Amino acid sequence: MPKKAGWYLGYMNNTNQQNTNSPFDEIYNHAVFFAKREMHTKGVLFPTCLLLTKHGVRGFSVKFPDNDQDKTRFTKIAKLMAVAHDAMAIATVAESWCAITPMLLIPPSESPDRIECVSVRVESMEKSKIEFLKTQRNGNGDFICLEPIENFPFGPIEGRFSEIMPAHPPTGNQRKKAEYLLRMMGAWQNKPMSK
């Protein structure tokens, strides 16, 4: 029997109080740190969205997203949170597969030359990027580290988890409406993210 998706929402501690990075770089650094921490402590990284706001980093993740409905809900919540919290930048991180030699009709997860990785997608209103970090494991399958994949032909961010940031800063009414919709979805909570 498939496991039901579990949703975890909350604030993360902003550990870098004297940060001089741009919001784009700051959320990227949080996303990579978060991915490494989850892989080291849990051995798994559930799809997670991190938002950089005036009040720190807000985040949520979904456990066991086993169908398109869960993935669509994840994206909808991310878009609404970006508006409701007037996010400066946003990142999504998830375990993934990538293929060094892309094949047109074969998904990366079925490619013979696939690589286990973590995808890090970062967006601000000005720019976006995606990066894949190769997952290194020992002979027992235990996580060792994440490392950049050299010379990988990255294209533009596309797909379900792209274009999450609004094109323009939201108005006060748009933020209130987004908060209302999140409350109606049961996705407006102030408890800490699951450790």
Quick summary:
With 195 residues, the protein is α+β, with helices and mostly antiparallel strands. The chain has three helices and seven strands.
Summarize the structure in words.
This protein is of the alpha+beta class and 195 residues long. It has three helices and seven strands, in the order E-H-E-E-H-E-E-E-E-H. It has a seven-stranded antiparallel beta sheet, sandwiched between helices. Strand 5 and strand 6 form a beta hairpin. The longest helix is centred in the first third of the chain and has 20 residues. The N terminus and C terminus are likely disordered.
Describe how the helices and strands are arranged.
Layout: E1 6-12, H1 23-42, E2 48-53, E3 56-63, H2 68-84, E4 89-99, E5 114-124, E6 128-137, E7 143-148, H3 172-184
Helix pairs in contact: 2-3
Helix content bin: 25-40%
| SSE pattern, N- to C-terminal | EHEEHEEEEH
Envelope shape: globular
Number of domains: 1
Number of helices: 3
Strand percent estimate: 25-35%
Query: Total strand count, please?
Result: 7
Supply database-style keywords.
alpha+beta, 3 helices, 7 strands, disordered C terminus, 195 residues, 26% helix, 7-stranded antiparallel beta sheet, single chain, globular
